[in-house]
Design brief:
This protein is an alpha+beta fold. The chain has eleven helices and nine strands.
């Protein structure tokens, strides 16, 4: 049994999802601290349900409605996202808004070092990721009906203000380096030269690969997406290259011809060619910002644990990383001249 009212869910699916046929079973996916996600196996096929958490949540957080709007706009363009089937904004149905999309079967790659692959296979997988990010940043937002998906003005300015506010709303400790970042980041925001769809959490384990080919079938987890500076996504993706291998996305010290994992320079060259850029600015500011933002997200999880609303047993382990994230963010700030 899941924590969903399966009778009400079944009624909604039958009335809303084209071609849906029961009977069906529901199983909650492990992991993922933010929006609880479920697999539905029905007579008509397999689906995924994502919902907001139950209980009180921060304003603008967990916006499954926006996530659905985005995949519904991207799917017809051929960009790799799951097919959207329906959005329920009525919290009365299951206790929180949710949406349904197709279950994309394939591989999830949790470890950025890609163990068990040849050097050539690793290169091909990384090139597919870079090309997919470049494709996202090349989508004409007006043409796909997403011209109002984000606010005008400098994206990083807004994000620094937003994550400072989110941090303050869920703050539980006094961290001097976090205070310094909250003071320094807004003063040093780089100029924004382009606007695109920004995924907000673009990393190797947020995509589903073809079962046997180095091809991405679906990019997942769009809840932090907006319109903004594409360098936000690109620099966040590059964080893996300055993160020690930890069995997740980190590949620091593992790049080069012997492993097939492209160097940070290789990635920059490929991305710039695909997006017609002549280079990227100093990345240290962006790395400081990304770690600051991550610290803000982790602080939110910590507050939810204290309030009894965290949706995963992994949450506690995530929260233990908080001091290291903040220290690392300040290190990159110093590298950028703080």
């Amino acid at each position: 049994m899941s924590d969903l009212d399966e009778v009400r869910l079944g009624d909604w699916l039958g009335a809303t999802v084209t071609g849906f046929e029961g009977p069906f079973t529901v199983e909650k996916f492990a992991g993922g601290q933010s929006n609880p996600t479920y697999r539905i196996d029905a007579a008509s096929g397999s689906y995924v349900l994502r919902r907001k958490p139950f209980g009180p949540i921060l304003p603008s957080a967990h916006a499954v409605e926006r996530e659905y709007q985005l995949i519904a706009a991207l799917h017809p363009t051929g960009f790799p996202v799951a097919r959207p089937y329906g959005l329920c904004e009525d919290a009365e149905v299951l206790g929180a808004p949710f949406y349904i999309m197709e279950m994309v079967e394939g591989r999830t790659l949790w470890d950025g070092s890609l163990p068990g692959m040849t050097a050539e296979q690793r290169t091909a997988h990384y090139e597919a990721i870079v090309d997919t990010l470049a494709a996202l940043h090349s989508i004409d937002v007006e043409a796909v009906g997403l011209g109002d998906y984000g606010k005008p003005g400098n994206y990083f300015e807004r994000q620094v203000a937003r994550w400072s506010k989110q941090y303050r709303m869920s703050q539980t400790d006094d961290l001097p380096e976090m205070e310094r970042l909250i003071e320094w980041l807004p003063r040093t925001v780089p100029e924004q030269t382009r606007t695109s769809i920004v995924h907000g959490d673009f990393r190797i384990d947020n995509m589903i690969f073809h079962p046997s080919e180095p091809r991405i079938l679906a990019v997942l987890d769009w809840e932090l997406s907006t319109l903004g500076d594409p360098l936000a996504d690109f620099s966040y993706f590059l964080m893996s290259w300055v993160t020690q291998p930890e069995g997740r996305s980190g590949v620091k010290g593992l790049t080069g011809q012997h492993t097939g994992i492209p160097t940070i320079e290789d990635v920059v060259v490929r991305y710039c060619a695909a997006t017609k850029r002549d280079g990227v600015p100093d990345l240290n500011w962006y790395f400081a910002y990304n770690l600051f933002r991550l610290a803000g997200i982790v602080q939110g999880i910590k507050k939810r644990i204290i309030d009894g609303n965290a949706s995963s047993a992994q949450a506690a382990a995530t929260v233990e990383r908080m001091p290291g994230l903040v220290a690392s963010a300040w290190h990159f700030a110093e590298e950028a001249g703080a």
